[in-house]
Amino acid sequence: QTSRAPAISVSAESCIPAGLRLGPVPGIFKLGKYLSDRREPGPKKKVFPRVGDDGGAAAFQVRMVRGELVDEAGSSALEWIELIRAARDSREQTLEAVAELPGGQIFYRALRDVQPGEELTVWYSNPLAQWFDIPITATPTHDEKGEERYICWYCWRTFKYPNSLKAHVHFHCALSHGRAFLHHEH
């Protein structure tokens, strides 16, 4: 599996409201390509919504202008959106990747209010996952200790999180031959 430097953790400095849209995501969209079951500690970056523009703000004041999120240096999301980590499962997911039409620009949308200090993590919306042939579901099995595990039905590799399995099948499994996730019902 491809590896890279430890991921930068992007977290909210103040509340990010549900439904807020970030983006568009620049470049080639490969969300999850470097997803791992492990969390490697790395540098942290804080972002916050701009809440207005009164012209007399201190550098640390939180501001929102036309719904745009900015980092501590005032940089727009276009400069740091690709640093947001892929969510390993729905419990840690705060954002979803969406497109207004198939093949259109991709944005991240807050699924719920994101609280101060909470990390921003993202995964595909179901329509976008289908567009990219990313698996939508993963059914867990239980190991000998009773813990949930997700097994690749092509190569039998085991994963702790469902999105790690989905990313593996789409980006890395040599035995899947690029076949999309076959929809298995529970």
Q: How would you portray this structure in words?
A:
The protein is mostly beta strands and 186 residues long. It has a domain of 124 residues: Beta-clip-like. It is 9% helix and 21% strand. It has two helices and eleven strands. The strands form three sheets. A five-stranded mixed β-sheet has the order 2-7-6-8-5. The protein is globular, with a radius of gyration of 18 Å. The relative contact order is 0.20.
Write the layout of secondary structure elements.
Blueprint: E1 9-12, E2 21-22, E3 44-49, E4 69-71, E5 85-86, E6 95-99, E7 106-110, E8 121-124, H1 126-131, E9 141-142, E10 148-151, E11 158-159, H2 162-172
Parallel strand pairs: 1-3, 5-8, 6-8
Antiparallel strand pairs: 2-7, 3-4, 6-7, 9-10, 10-11
Question: In brief, what are we looking at here?
Answer:
Helices cover 9% and strands 21% of the residues.
Distance between the termini: 29 Å
Question: Which oligomeric form is depicted?
Answer: single chain
The CATH class designation of the domain at 9-132 is Mainly Beta
Work out the helicity level.
under 10%
Individual helix count: 2
For the residues shown, what is the average pLDDT? Answer: 77
Sequence of secondary-structure elements:
EEEEEEEEHEEEH
CATH topology of the domain at 9-132: Beta-clip-like
Q: Rounded to an integer, what's the Rg over CA atoms?
A: 18 Å
Look at the helices and sheets and give the structural class: mainly beta
How much strand content do the residues show?
15-25%
State the CATH architecture of the domain at 9-132. Beta Complex
- Overall 3D shape: globular
Q: What characterizes the major β-sheet? A: 5 strands, mixed
Please give the number of β-strands: 11
How are the strands of the biggest sheet laid out side by side? 2-7-6-8-5
Name the poorly predicted regions. 1-6, 50-66, 180-186
